[in-house]
Design brief:
378 residues; nine-stranded antiparallel beta sheet; five-stranded parallel beta sheet; 26% helix; globular; binds adenosine-5'-diphosphate; binds magnesium ion; N5-carboxyaminoimidazole ribonucleotide synthase; phosphoribosylaminoimidazole carboxylase activity; ligase; Rudment_hybrid_motif; nucleotide-binding
Length: 378
């Protein structure tokens, strides 16, 4: 643990150049570092802010060799090749580890680790072959059959009520490894972002209360409208999981708030910065991207203090006009307490995350109401 800190103007590398990579690059550049981005898309959002854009496939040997020359390397997307990260780790400082990334890529492994950490998940069973579906599976019904890998924004999920529906859903998923999860009495969804360098240097952000629309995150409200006690438990839960994984980097932990007692069940994790942490740019002492930079540079994470209640709203391609015409930014841009972030994506598509804005105000309810109203003005 005596790795020396990496200081500016060292070159930092990132696998992936989407919006998370873009905000990472902004943070790193602001802090005086140089940035290399690997992404096959010539229009990758992060490229605008990078000193160097390696425009090549993620498994391109020559590009990975270049990335290996960076003082440290991180990632911004979930399905990054874990082996590429392991091989980079032979040459440079890589965080998070390929092992942690690969656990988060598979719901079966992920849930097993959550349970191993002594934390709760929704009741579930793994379904990897047709014979795994037995009479005993009925205890997880009604439930959701989720593919073990590659699911996101509600994709790869089928809701099932009976054993027959379950069998049909497994066939519809093509017989790939799945998790059958019992439907729980959801009262809310929250996430906690953990920033961890080692046992002694861990910070958690305040839990965000997440509101989804059509399976995609629409709003994150902070502070979450939950008791101080539940919020504290949420932070401890997320930190315990990061400790269990000996995680180095920024880890997002999504949790369900269940039943009258607001019991917390861990749903899933993302081994990276997270959409529900975008408010940290405008509303926290240090944001999640600065934390990612600090940790990959062996520096302790900074203070995560929330400076104002706020609500982050995602801006999807849906609000662009049919002909690609821009939404009306004026109402939003005229507001002194609203902060717009656009990701520089060339084409707007339905459901595509094009940007976000964060409203800072007196309390969570007002922030949420204002954000909804401003979103409607687009
Ligand atoms: P994704 O990878 O698509 O985000 P999630 O596992 O987070 O997949 O599921 C998407 C959404 O479906 C959740 O945010 C939640 O609203 C709902 N959901 C998922 N699992 C359950 C469950 N066991 N009980 C009730 N609702 C669930
Ligand atoms: Mg989710």
């Amino acid at each position: 643990m005596n790795t020396p800190p990496i200081l500016p103007p060292a070159m930092l590398g990132i696998l992936g150049g989407g919006q998370l990579g873009r905000m990472f690059a902004v943070a790193a550049k602001t802090m005086g570092y140089k940035v290399t981005v690997l992404d096959p898309d010539p229009n990758a959002p992060a490229a605008e802010f990078a000193d160097r854009h390696l425009c090549a496939p993620f498994d391109d040997r020559a590009a990975l060799d270049e990335l290996a020359k960076c003082a440290a390397v991180t990632t911004e997307f979930e399905n990054v090749n874990a082996d590429a990260m392991r091989s980079l780790a032979k040459h440079t400082n890589v965080s998070p580890s390929g092992d942690c990334v690969s656990i988060a890529q598979n719901r079966i492994q992920e849930k097993a680790r959550i349970r191993k950490a002594g934390l709760q998940t929704a009741p579930y069973q793994a379904v990897c072959k047709a014979e795994d579906i037995t009479e005993a599976s009925a205890q997880f019904l009604p439930g959701i059959l989720k593919t073990a890998t590659l699911g996101y924004d509600g994709k790869g999920q089928i809701r099932v009520k009976t054993l027959d529906e379950l069998k049909a859903a497994f066939a519809e998923h093509g017989g790939v490894d799945c998790v059958l999860e019992k439907m729980v009495d959801l009262r809310g969804e929250i996430s906690v972002i953990v920033c961890r360098l080692n046992d002694e240097n861990v910070q958690t952000f305040d839990p965000a209360e997440n509101i989804h629309e059509n399976g995609i995150l629409a709003y994150s409200i902070v502070p979450a409208r939950l008791s101080a006690d539940v919020q504290q438990q949420a932070r401890q839960t997320a930190q315990r999981l990061a400790d269990e994984l000996d995680y180095v980097g920024v880890l997002a932990v999504e949790m369900f708030v269940v039943g009258d007692t607001h019991e917390l069940l861990v749903n899933e994790t993302a081994p990276r910065t997270h959409n529900s942490g975008h408010h940290t740019i405008d509303a926290c002492a240090a944001d999640q991207f600065q934390q990612q930079v600090r940790i990959m540079c062996n520096l302790p994470p900074a203070d995560t203090k929330l400076l104002s209640p706020c609500c982050m709203a995602n801006i999807l391609g849906d609000v662009w006009q049919e002909d690609g015409g821009e939404p009306d930014w004026l109402p939003l841009q005229s507001r002194p307490n609203a902060h717009l972030h656009l990701y520089g994506k060339k084409t707007a598509q339905k459901g595509r995350k094009m940007g976000h804005f964060t409203v800072l105000t007196t309390d969570s309810d007002t922030a949420f109401q204002e954000a909804k109203k401003l979103h409607q003005s687009l």
